[in-house]
Amino acid sequence: MSQTSGPVHLNNHHRDTLVSIFQHRTSHNIDWKAVESLLEVVGSVVQTDDDKFHVQIGEEEQVFVRPRHKDLDTQQIVDLRRMLTNAGYAGLVEETTGEGKEV
């Protein structure tokens, strides 16, 4: 898996997904496909035959299992927040929400 050296430029769709992940209360309507798309931009994703996704963002690696339904569960969101924060994306969320973007 390749590594990224820091936050990369995100399009509006990816920024919206990132903001959803960092919302104060854990949202239970974050679509897995949107998250998978974001993860492919900010890190590397390798899918295995058993619907597991090996994700690397910066120095961190995590295995995610595709949700049974389309939305992520609370623990997946917590793990994503940790990984994205450690890779420097929490600051981007603060910039985005500070510019009048709704959370």
Features:
single chain; 103 residues; alpha+beta; three-stranded antiparallel sheet; 43% helix
Can you tell me about this structure?
- The protein has helices spanning 12-21, 32-42, 74-86, 89-98, and strands at residues 44-47, 52-57, 60-65.
- The chain has a domain at 12-42 and 66-98.
- It has four helices and three strands, in the order H-H-E-E-E-H-H.
- The longest helix has 13 residues, at 74-86.
- Strands 1-2-3 form a three-stranded antiparallel sheet, covered by helices on one side.
Short description:
With 103 residues, the chain is of the alpha+beta class. The chain is built from 4 helices and 3 strands; from the N terminus they run H-H-E-E-E-H-H.
Strand content: 15-25%
Overall shape: globular
Structural class: alpha+beta
Mean pLDDT: 84
The largest pleated sheet is described as: 3 strands, antiparallel
- Number of E-type strands: 3
N-to-C SSE series?
HHEEEHH
State the share of residues found in helices, binned by percent: 40-55%
Number of helices: 4
Rg, Cα atoms, Å:
13 Å
Low-pLDDT runs: none
With strands numbered from the N-terminus, the spatial order across the biggest sheet is 1-2-3
N-to-C CA distance: 32 Å
Q: What's the layout of helices and strands?
A:
Layout: H1 12-21, H2 32-42, E1 44-47, E2 52-57, E3 60-65, H3 74-86, H4 89-98
Antiparallel strand pairs: 1-2, 2-3
